[in-house]
């Protein structure tokens, strides 16, 4: 026999943790290498 | 700002790429499970997107378009390198350590270990739909499969996680109970909590 309350509690926590795993990286500062990369790509474009 | 108002020469969709870097890094990390590999993957994706911007249809979902490139790059690199990058030792989980929870919630660490055990396709479906807020339609397009396939991957991924975590919580519960009972029975003097 299933335990619906426990099950749904676990599912809820799974959803919450999924978002946390993702948000943790989303909220990090983007490393400078990416800003430098985009600037380099723009500069190359301008020289075409 | 509406697209109609922006003058043609100043509206380069590539200017939008920068806004998507944080979510691209998060998606890349969920695929590679390794921080530096994730950033290399994002870098390759940015370069490809920059050069293939003509393939992007303005007004459509740029994040979904970028995620598609990222994902294709990931799988094609992996095919080329012919090695499995699955994180068997759990180093992904190690990079994401967090203070333990003492309130009975799932510890993040346990969750991440379980998450790392899922099949790639389930993990990416869960990240797209469950964490990044993609619609089933966008997730299906990003992964190049039918909507029903994404739905079933999400469902199977959730069940598998529940299974892994439920097992884990049973184990730790049993151990904690025994340890706690030993301490409670032997060491806490009566009336301890009355003050």
Automatic annotation (TrEMBL), chain A:
It comes from the Bacteria. InterPro entries: NepR. Residues 12-45 form the Anti-sigma factor NepR domain. This is Anti-sigma factor NepR domain-containing protein. It comes from Primorskyibacter flagellatus.
TrEMBL record, chain B:
PROSITE patterns: SIGMA70_ECF (PS01063). Keywords: DNA-binding, Sigma factor, Transcription, Transcription regulation. Residues 110-161 form the RNA polymerase sigma factor 70 region 4 type domain. GO terms for molecular function: DNA binding; sigma factor activity. InterPro entries: RNA_pol_sigma-70-like, RNA_pol_sigma-70_dom, RNA_pol_sigma70_ECF_CS, RNA_pol_sigma70_r2, RNA_pol_sigma70_r4_t2, RNA_pol_sigma_r2, RNA_pol_sigma_r3/r4-like, WH-like_DNA-bd_sf. The keyword Transcription regulation applies. The keyword ATP-binding does not apply. It comes from the Bacteria. Belongs to the sigma-70 factor family. ECF subfamily. This is RNA polymerase sigma factor.
